[in-house]
Amino acid sequence: MKAIADRSRCMAAGHCAVTAPAVFGNGDDGLVTVVDAEPGAEHREEVLLALRLCPSGAISALLDG
Questions:
Q1: What's the CATH number where 13 sits?
Q2: If exposure means fewest CB atoms within 10 Å of the residue's CB, which of 3, 14, 30, 47 is most exposed?
Q3: Which UniProt keywords apply (predicted)?
Q4: How many domains does the chain have?
């Protein structure tokens, strides 16, 4: 899996960092940052939930197979 965040779409709601803190964080400006761009399978559900919860659609993921 590859975790992707589009900072230009981010509205700093913070759902991603709360839902998947091992994968997403917030920069000094409050916008999303990617902490782990290639998280392991143990984070898959968290990343997918963060994707669904993001109000601006800034989170996406490339799934393996």
A1: 3.30.70.20
A2: 30
A3: 3Fe-4S, Electron transport, Iron, Iron-sulfur, Metal-binding, Transport
A4: 1
